[in-house]
Specification:
It is a single chain. With about 350 residues, the protein is α/β, with parallel strands linked by helices. It has 3 domains: about 70 residues, no CATH class; about 100 residues, no CATH class; about 170 residues, no CATH class. Helices cover about 40% and strands about 10% of the residues. The chain is built from 9 helices and 10 strands. A 4-stranded mixed beta sheet has the order 7-8-10-9, with helices on one face. Strands 1-2 form a two-stranded antiparallel ribbon. Strand 9 and strand 10 form a beta hairpin. Helix 2 crosses helix 4. It binds zinc ion (ZN) (3 copies).
């Protein structure tokens, strides 16, 4: 992503609402994944009224809101000073996360349109309502507005000992819970997709409150890095899936960005990071020889691991912490492989371009 063009030929970006070369107003069309001139298209009313959205409304839509904003069930109290800029950052991260789902072919209906499989966002201030916290329940993603405050988020990150905590990560993670309900929940427990899940992630029906309480009181198990992408993923199989899904989207989007910019890992003068071939295989009931993505997946993961070594070194050269503070173990690669399989359920599996 991130490689778009204005009609005048100037490079513009996913968040652009103005071309700095020709002065055109721009908007993003989520259905074609293009930046278009906004003059003869309808800008989302959250963009026109509050300047918090650059997406365009489909011409035949009866709505004033774009595909992303119409999923909001609750937005923050904008009469409260400071809430507007926080909300703006939340919406920017949400659009980026939703673009991935739209590009996979997910229909993204509102919960009101589809009570069984729809999606809604409640963006609520924890200060206004101390009972709320970021999370997912039955098609509703709740996001704590204060997570958009960098100081608040950094303090939480330090307290929880997380290597990464971002707004985009929150959206990818919570959307992961939603995707689980769409992809796994409809099948009986003995279905191959459920069996593939359990063999990689464990039993998702195990006691969730007890697992979370244990995680917050005792921390992750020793050596969690060899089995999980993050410490939090070790808390419960459901959280492991959401963390894995979030990571899968992070790396496919980063690969896409690199590819658009002409950065290809096979140009790097570093040996490929070895990842065992069995990390890429899925049960034959889930894939056929024709549709299997095993080898391209494995190769992309190896190139990604190689590229992140370079990105980390660049970051350290600039005096910053590692850009990519993660290790993809064999167990994690197997989980990512299942996420890659699920990402194809709606017809358009992300290309692993790197
Ligand atoms: Zn232009
Ligand atoms: Zn919008
Ligand atoms: Zn979660």
């Amino acid at each position: 992503m991130l490689s778009y063009q204005c009609a005048c030929g100037n490079p513009v970006y996913f968040d652009s609402s103005l071309c700095l070369a020709c002065g055109s107003s721009l908007g993003f069309d989520p259905l074609t994944d293009r930046i278009l001139p906004a003059d003869n298209a309808r800008l989302c009313s959250n963009g026109a009224r509050y300047n918090v959205c650059n997406w365009l409304v489909p011409p035949d839509s009866p709505d004033d809101l774009c595909l992303a904003c119409r999923l909001n069930r609750t937005i923050p109290d904008l009469t409260r000073p400071g809430n507007l800029p926080l909300w703006s950052r939340i919406e920017a991260a949400k659009r980026r996360a939703l673009r991935s789902l739209v590009n996979m072919g997910l229909p993204l209906r509102t919960l009101a349109e589809d009570p069984d499989a729809g999606l809604a966002f409640d963006i609520v201030s924890h200060i206004a309502d101390p009972a709320i916290s970021t999370g997912y329940l039955a098609g509703v993603i709740t996001i704590n507005l204060e997570e958009a405050d960098d100081v608040h988020r950094r303090i939480s990150q330090q307290q929880l000992g997380e290597s990464s905590r971002t707004l985009l990560g929150h959206f990818h993670h919570e959307c992961g819970h939603y995707v689980w309900e769409l992809a796994f929940a409809p099948w009986p427990p003995d279905h191959p997709i459920r069996a593939a899940f359990r063999s990689r992630f464990g039993d998702e029906s195990s006691n969730y409150p007890a697992a979370l309480a244990r995680h917050y009181s005792s921390g992750p198990p020793h050596g969690w890095e060899s089995s999980f992408i993050s410490a939090y993923a070790s808390s419960h199989p459901s959280e492991d899936w959401a963390e894995t899904w979030a990571h899968y989207l992070h790396l496919t989007e980063a690969m896409e960005t690199c590819s658009h910019a002409g950065i290809h890992a096979h140009h790097l003068s570093l040996p490929l990071v070895p990842i065992p071939a069995d990390a890429a295989s899925l049960p034959p009931q889930l894939t056929s020889a024709i549709t299997s993505d095993d080898l391209p997946f494995l190769a992309a993961l190896q190139r990604w691991a190689c590229l992140t070594t370079v990105l980390n070194e660049v970051s350290l050269s600039l005096g910053e912490p590692r850009l990519y503070p993660f290790v993809i173990s064999t167990a994690v690669a197997k989980k990512l492989r299942l996420a890659h399989h699920v990402a194809g359920f709606w017809g358009r599996r992300p290309a692993l371009l790197i």
